[in-house]
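Entry type: protein chain
Record version: 2
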Amino acid sequence: MSDITVVLGFDMETDIGSFTPFYEGVQRGTPAILEVLGKHGATATFFFTGDAARKNPVATRQARAAGHEVGCHALYHETVGEPLFDIPNVPPLLPEEVPHRLQVATEWVAAVVGERPVSFRAPRLFGSTAMIVALEQLGYVADSSYPLYFYRERLTPYHPSRSDWTQPGDLRIVELPNFADLTLESKDPYGRDRDQWPRFRTEGAEALLRHVDNYCRYCRARGVEPFLSFYLHPWEFCEMPQGEIHYGEGSVRPDPFIVRNCGPYALEQLDRLIGLLKARGAVFYQARQAAERWR
């Protein structure tokens, strides 16, 4: 086994998540991401919402043609699981709605890329047991929705329980925890300041790597091989509007950290981060490949 296993996941969604209906990031950010990955020989998983794949078939097929995995990120950038905290005007789906919408999302992505996705990530890492059971029934092999910053228990991939997705069980699907620095003493009620996102562009690659090193020591002290799943977004690699964004019949104003340093600086830091991880002996896997290792 490698010293560090890394899964790079890009959540292919509308710009700034649920704040806009635009796809500048998917259209312009995807080629830039692919160039950086190709430079380092690193593989990744691109989690497309069904809507993003349908409206951006060129970018979807570009990611697959470059040898990367195309996964699913729900139908729209919606709350398919149980919310950890409130997002204005983004109510969660009812549990009984989840199976059908995940089925449609799977079909939309498959129709564009020519094969069914087998890896999933919930928008905002808001997962649930109903979601995991539905993914199992749809034949998914990997889910990367577990927010380590919040639950703080599962350090490595595991088979979840059909009665509680955050606990080990007998489902075939493999849950891939998303990296967070558990050595930090959190000052946030949800533990979000332990999370890795969006440190790579708000603080820089070197700052994020210090958290990687902290977490790797944390894992090794417990006899666990470090497993690092990152979630990033294509819109982070394009300049995003600062301040108020108007569309339709109103406007929104994201918190400043959400759009800080998007564009060339973020791309430079992604390049730097991958190089630093490689220097630490990291080996890069697609989500489905990681699930196969831990199956």
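Comment: The beta strands are 4-12, 45-48, 69-72, 119-120, 142-143, 174-175, 227-232, 245-247, 250-252, 282-285.
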